[in-house]
Write a structure and sequence with these properties.
single chain, Histone, subunit A, mainly alpha, flat
């Protein structure tokens, strides 16, 4: 089982504020995950090829080709507001 102190350390690294109840809950949950991982380490994987996906496939991406090229004027025609050839957007504070 993972200690409460370990949970507090991980929460601090992740910049999370946890209640005492959450610390106890996550301590048990993380302990369960590690316990399961220990069980997985006991499985004999001799002769099993490492894999990154259960289905064998090759690159499924298409060629990157230009389908339709638009001019600046055509793109700017869709803008709700324009200022000096740029999209004008609300200021973010």
């Amino acid at each position: 089982m993972i200690s409460i102190k370990d949970v507090e350390h991980v929460a601090k690294l992740a910049r999370l504020e946890l209640t005492e109840e959450e610390k106890v809950k996550f301590s048990k949950q993380l302990g369960d995950v590690l316990s399961y991982m220990e069980q997985m380490n006991e499985v004999d994987t001799t002769g099993v090829e490492p894999m990154n996906h259960p289905i064998d496939f090759s690159n499924v991406m298409r060629e990157d080709t230009v389908i339709c090229e638009q001019t600046r004027e055509e793109l700017m025609a869709n803008a709700p507001e324009i200022e000096q050839d740029y999209f004008k957007v609300p200021k973010i504070n």
